[in-house]
Design brief:
alpha+beta; two-stranded antiparallel sheet; 2 strands
Length: 65
């Protein structure tokens, strides 16, 4: 995967990732540009804690192991 981010988007992404790591209840974050023309969804998960994800997401995660 290659991401091309502006400096502002990278700083914003850093904040979202920090929140995802520090707040266990958060499973994902949506990173959008100012015009909402592009969006990236970032998920953080633990193999034994998939209850907050959709059935399809759980299937994809489990198939990755």
């Amino acid at each position: 995967m290659t991401l091309f981010l502006t400096k502002v988007e990278a700083i914003e992404s850093q904040g979202y990732l920090k929140d995802l790591l520090l707040v266990p209840a958060l499973h994902h974050a949506h990173l959008s540009d100012k015009e909402y023309k592009k969006e990236i969804t970032v998920c953080v998960y633990e193999e034994n804690r998939l209850d907050g994800f959709s059935e399809r997401a759980r299937k994809l995660i489990k198939e990755d192991f």
